[in-house]
Amino acid sequence: MTYNENNKLNYIYFKRTIDIFVSSIGLILTSPILLITAVAIRSNTPGPIIFKQKRLGLHGRTFEIYKFRSMGMNAEKGGVYEKKNDLRVTSVGKFIRKTSIDELPQFVNILKGEMSLIGPRPALMYHPWNYDKYSEEQKRMFSVKPGVTGWAQINGRKDVEWPKRIELNVEYVDNLSLKFDTMIFFKTILKVVKMENNLNVNETATKQKEVK
After folding, report:
1. 3-state class of 4 per DSSP?
2. How many helices (H) and strands (E) in the chain?
3. Structure letter (DSSP) for residue 117
4. Does the structure show a pLDDT above 80 at 3?
5. How many whole angstroms separate alpha carbon 185 and alpha carbon 118?
6. Could you state, in order of their start, the residue ranges of all structural domains in the chain?
7. How far apart are CA 75 and CA 53, in angstroms?
8. Residue 117: Cβ within 10 Å count
9. Residues in CB range of 174: below 8 A, 6 or more apart
10. DSSP labels for 40-81?
11. Most CB atoms within 10 A, among 38, 55, 173, 210?
12. CA 112 – CA 105 distance, rounded (Å)
């Protein structure tokens, strides 16, 4: 094992400590927001408060990601891309999506060890394509835990086409460090405050070439 690889491995262990600390504090500090949001969703439309969805995690293993529900029931039948003025999005959902409040339940995913605060955003099991359709180079993005935010998210977020998004995710894996994560964290806060690139209205996935 090289010096850099050893440093990266040590940081991964330290990163878990950071994740537990930050997500625990995050849940405590945002508890009033979590409660108000839960009440608003329950009062606004019928259905569960928390939306659960299968995603690809570490080493391609599946897990359920948690989000506040921002759409009506069975909205996924309408496709993975949000349309402009999408009628599937509830009135409460528009606000929590715009402000990224819908992502706050992922603090629980972090505490469970399924996600990290910083890392590649977890892809759907079938979108942009199935796990076995990723190339070996692309699969390197699954060598770390998925994150609530990541390198691709501060470089265009949902406007970035998936091949480029995956390339950025692999670049993140190659440059994993406390300094890199800290920079991503603060740039994410700026993005959230400015409410940039938080709508997935353009098709960003093309058919993947067959993996040999």
Report:
1. helix
2. 6, 4
3. E
4. no
5. 7
6. 3-194
7. 12
8. 24
9. none
10. HHHHHSSS-SEEEEEEE-GGG-EEEEEEE--B-TTGGGG-SS
11. 55
12. 12
Cα–Cα distance measured from residue 105 to residue 207, given in angstroms and rounded to the nearest whole number: 31
The encoded tokens of residue 46 equal 């019928």
- Between CA 179 and CA 189 the distance in angstroms is 16
| CA–centroid distance for 193 within its chain | 17
> CA-based angle 62:197:34, to the nearest 5?
65
DSSP 128: S
Question: Backbone phi, then psi, for 110, in 5-degree steps?
Answer: -65, -45
- Tell me the residue length of the chain: 212
Angle between helices 91-98 and 31-44 (to 10 degrees): 150
Classify 149 as helix, strand or coil.
strand
Coil, helix or strand for 100?
Answer: coil
- Residue/partner pairs of 20-24 with CB below 8 Å, 24 or more apart: 20/110, 20/111, 22/110, 22/117, 23/107, 23/108, 23/110, 23/111, 23/117, 24/107, 24/111
Tokens of 9: 């491995």
- Residue 139 corresponds to which amino acid? K
116 three-class SS:
strand
3 state DSSP class of 144: coil
| pLDDT tens digits along 117-151 | 999 999 999 989 999 999 999 999 999 999 999 99
Mention every residue, 6+ apart, whose C-beta is less than 8 A from residue 94: 70
